[in-house]
Amino acid sequence: MKNIKILSILTLFSVFCSCNEKVTNEKPKPDGFWKQIGYGNIIELNDTIISVYNISKQDCHLSFEEHILDFGKVKKHSKDTLTIRHGNDDWLFTRLEKLPNLCKTSKELNNDPKHNFQVFWDTFNEHHASFDIKNINWNEVYKQYEPKINENTTDLELYTIFREMIALLNDGHVKMEVPEKIKNEYKNQVEEQEEKYSKLDEFKLNKEIAEFYVDSLRNYNAGMVRYGLINKNIGYIQINSMLMLADYELQKDLDLRNFFGQYWEKAENRKDELQRQDEVDGINGILNSILNELNGAKSYILDIRFNGGGKDAVAMAILNHFSDKEKMAYTKKARIEKGFANPQKFKIIPSKNHFNGNVYLLTSHLTASASEILVLASLANTNFKRIGSTTEGIFSSTLDKELPNGWEYELSNEVYQDLKGKNYENVGISSNYQIEYSKNKDAFLDQLSDGLKNKKDRAIELAIELEK
């Protein structure tokens, strides 16, 4: 009987220890409040729902609530730190015990013009990464515009002031979205210069260039990617966006307008993080097919002269198909009020199906944003030669923000650097073989159109000559 009692006690003790061990070894849940390092956000996680607060020196307000996969994926977490994977980036957070009091204050100032101006100025002051490069004194900008605002400032007047401040930055990644009524009122008072070429005209021209040089031109996704052989042994791939590359099983013969509508109808039903992966999977599938189909190519021309950007991860997936060694490609770091966060490092990781020979990368001033990431990362590869004009010089991902009055805006808060620590923001990356394309879009497309009339594209001709 005594042995049975002892056995029972030992059993209970064993069970207790086992349960206690499970508790102590259990990973802490990421639910709760977290402050993002370098991006001016506080988040609250509650199972699969994330609430995002914009915070600046004098304001904190709830910007949006959504499913976590519309924000990113939880990569790892501990009691005090959290990493969320957002596309190609790792966003770092530190735990907060509670929401700051600033986030709980009255919303009476939400529509106050002076308060909204202050939040706008503060956010740029704390996060915009390129004041020094652009030689802009943001404090002087404050002194110039703050006296113009009072409690009676209209929405149109406030928007006009924000537009003027944004124009000073000369940055294609700085934008503001306001209600349609205010937009229309602004257009009525400002005569905006119309562009000669529409997006459809641009696509018609780049198709004509490809058709002139390539035998049996083929394409994916309504011309987002065009490809074929030049002179039977030079592969030509024209990539016109770092977006709209996923395979959503749409009709193969859709024109651009119908493709665009049907594509985004499918894409917008996907959680953001899943849709980003769709884009990467799409370009990987496209390039695998092209490399298999053009397996007789001795070299490749990658034409990104018309590529205005999209997803950085797509740019790196492209480069991975034309690289034979794993290596560092570039770094980036986010601005914080008194400096920068620790840099993230990005690697080239060769695809299983990759090409090792010469690659001629064609660029222009329309080559911008994520397509410039491809150019930046290609600097690490000795098999790449760049032909064309300097890229636009807008590398930073956009930091999305919202004013207390609900107006949405974007700014550039990151610095991208090559392996030597050089930053190309605002200046762009020049080519090994420079062609003086115009920085004006209409003039640049006129140059290409005139060249085609004379049965010649200088960049493609130069690539062919260099390969000879």
Automatic annotation (TrEMBL):
> Which Gene3D superfamilies does this entry report, sorted A to Z?
2-enoyl-CoA Hydratase, Chain A, domain 1 (3.90.226.10), 3.30.750.44
Top-rank taxon of the source lineage equals: Bacteria
* Chain ranges of the Tail specific protease domain: 198-436
Q: What InterPro entries does this protein map onto? A: ClpP/crotonase-like_dom_sf (IPR029045), Tail-specific_protease (IPR005151), Tricorn_C1 (IPR028204)
**What is the official name of this protein in its record?**
S41 family peptidase
Q: Which organism is it from?
A: Psychroserpens luteus
